[in-house]
Protein 1
Amino acid sequence: MSKETEKRVVVVGVAGRTGEPIARSLIDSRRFLVAGVVRPESVGKPAIKELEGLGVSIIPLDWQNAAPRVLEALFTDVETVISACHPAAIADQAKLVDAAKAAGVKRFVPSDWSAIAPRGALKLEDMKHTFHDYLFESGLPYTLIALGTWYDGIFPPIPPYIAPTAERQLIADTVYHSFGTGQVKNTLINRLNVGRLVARVIDDEDTIGKKVLVNEDEASLDEVWSLAEKYAPQLAPLRVRVSDEDVERTIIEGAASSTTFDLKNVKFIKGLFNEAMKSLYISGHNSEAAARADGWIIARERYPDVPLQTAEEWAKEYYGGSRR
Ligand SMILES: NC(=O)c1ccc[n+]([C@@H]2O[C@H](COP(=O)([O-])OP(=O)(O)OC[C@H]3O[C@@H](n4cnc5c(N)ncnc54)[C@H](OP(=O)(O)O)[C@@H]3O)[C@@H](O)[C@H]2O)c1
């Protein structure tokens, strides 16, 4: 494709854990001209230089506080806006929607990138559902994309465990907890590979106005632990089975511990974590079968030529030493 025919995409949160690998894959696909929004305080992140080297135009902008006309100018002649913003900024995406609508953007992909959960099941997902209502009412064309869970959020790590975020570090003791019967499937993906399928989804007119599940594999917790034990046998004694009653109690204690979305409060975060695990591994909201029944397109079925990393391949690589 020439520069004239490449489709213009803006990734908001391009230096984040989700945004950066998506931008890389969009560039790799040679189908898109990619620009990425970075908050001014983050322009020094090492990822920025690398993205620029790959051809991503970096736009330093405090988008949450930007004037509507600035965002509208940013989105002029842009085909797709992909939001990979932080969970704390979910509601602020309304500003992106207003500007994208005014600029005539053809598709908006909100910062979901999580597991499928019905309204009322998870506090974080309910914030996303509330934002979706705004998006739907705006009339802006959209595609919703769910992943399930990143492999490294589910496979037990070899100790010592160093959490990826401050909040996760506060509940680091839960990293070997196992929920439900162990046999409920959940969809999984390597965070670094999400963009391979996303590049296809946003190049497909038929996914406008649709919900698409982007995953590489699915596995139950018994299957996850069996792979973990195969490649790192020392993990076997670390598995802690949590009863459904304990899950319920932790959720209730978490909800009672804070009236705000308090990510410094250990009880509150434990409550959120157990809510998520209940949804995935007790209620079974996020299997491919559940997604299909709820009208989700399964990207790996729709684009069977896209290479995938199976759970077994991921485990072999992760426990083999070359962790990604
Ligand atoms: N499926 C899964 O397993 C999974 C796992 C994690 C996250 N997610 C979802 O993926 C989406 C993106 O999450 P992420 O983990 O990729 O995000 P992230 O990397 O933590 O943050 C994305 C960007 O948000 C900005 N940011 C950081 N802290 C912020 C704050 N307190 N308030 C406002 N902005 C902030 C930063 O932008 P600058 O670099 O421009 O400063 C950062 O690069 C979310 O919807 C999240 O729920 C899914």
Note: The radius of gyration is 20 Å.
Protein 2
Amino acid sequence: MASLTIRKLDDAVKTYLRLRSAKNRRSVEEEVRVILRELIEGREEPLTPFSAPPAPSSAPTPQRTGALPEASVTLIIGGGIAAYKSLDLIRRLKERRVEVRCVLTKAAQQFVTPLAVSALSHERIYTDLFDPQSEFDAGHIRLARDCDLIVVAPATADLMAKMANGHADDLASAILLATNRKILLAPAMNPLMWNNAATRRNVAQLQRDGVVLIGPNSGEMAEAGEAGVGRMSEAIEIANAAERLLRPPVPKPLAGKRVLITAGPTHEPIDPVRYIANRSSGKQGFAIAAAAQAAGAEVILVSGPVDLDDPAGVTVKHVESARQMLEQVQAALPADIAIFAAAVADWRVANEGEQKLKKTAAGMPPLQLVENPDILATISKLADKRPPLVIGFAAETEHLIDNAKSKLARKGCDWIVANDVSPATGVMGGDRNTVHLISRKSGEIAVDSWPVMTKEQVAIELVAHIARSVTDKSLEPAS
Ligand SMILES: Cc1cc2nc3c(=O)[nH]c(=O)nc-3n(C[C@H](O)[C@H](O)[C@H](O)COP(=O)(O)O)c2cc1C
């Protein structure tokens, strides 16, 4: 039987379901079941429970504190004084775009009201294992499995004892026994209960079972004059721990690697106010810097004049001319990987004017050009500080692959990223790029042509190749 994940539905459908379920005082899942039953029985309610769908609210939407994708949590609230903090926990989780469905134990209802919990979670709450409304299709199993994480806060000594021993005589313990999701417990109890040998045994057993604990903290107890370990962690600590468990771990394949990147054009002065430049925007090099940083590398970006914000977490050295760029590149060595994406001017003016050149009757000023230093070749041919992987860029307007292959041989680098920059492609200054990765593979020159991608995608793909090459010996360095 297929299962339906409500949070993956279109926003409009979700809004409709939420409004309709709120109106009928049912959970969203129950409302879906009712709609399906009515359809089958031919008693379909009109599809507009309210006269018109709500207009988008002008009220500020809750602040999203992390880049967490939508997720859902079943929150079990146990019967302890700290249950009041769970109201704040619901809010903290919802701020992180986590849907929260709450289960209250019988004892929990002595500390917080189902109405308060339901109002904060915008969902009906669950209290009873033998609730005919939700159990006609094993609701406790859905609560156990149709979520990404189960959080128990406060986790009472009693609930932990039941869990450690596999009891299932109420809704909370039945869910905890029937789940295959990760469980996060936030214990809260008197220090003597926490230190009791039975609780110690139960906690040790739960940890062996793979249950994750947050807290308890040390501090004042609700009971007058008592202090010690047993205070439930603060709502924000529990929400952060839940977020860590919900967010898929981000791989950091370049952790511990130092990556040097150049980007942008260079400006070669003619006189104090004029210069020779090119159309490079620096977007590709900046995207590579951001992708390498996200992959865990320490990144130094040497950039020519560009109109871009420095990528977060990257050390940026701003330069103007090719000679300044080379100077900063040499200063940044040693590096594990060097990527030369800058469009460095091949020539500069030999006789740079100290003052602004003036129009004279003698005609045009004679502009003598001399070659700039070749940064890629200089670094590729270093005897001592050559980075183990040196990658150059070949921006060509004709004979792309042939020119790039000969550049690979001539410069002595390991890979060339070749791209066609003829005006029709819109690559210079644009957001997309079509590249060919030229490398040496088992002694042969290999050409890997990638489809048209955004410059960010090219950057991510290139960083993924670099990460693989760190372990793949078939991508041989030139020297
Ligand atoms: C005022 C009061 C406060 C309590 N606080 C706690 C507590 O903080 N931690 C705990 O483990 N039990 C506490 N208890 C005991 C639990 O409420 C009791 O063990 C109950 O059976 C737990 O049920 P549950 O685990 O199903 O929620 C408290 C009891 C009372 C009367």
Note: The radius of gyration is 32 Å.
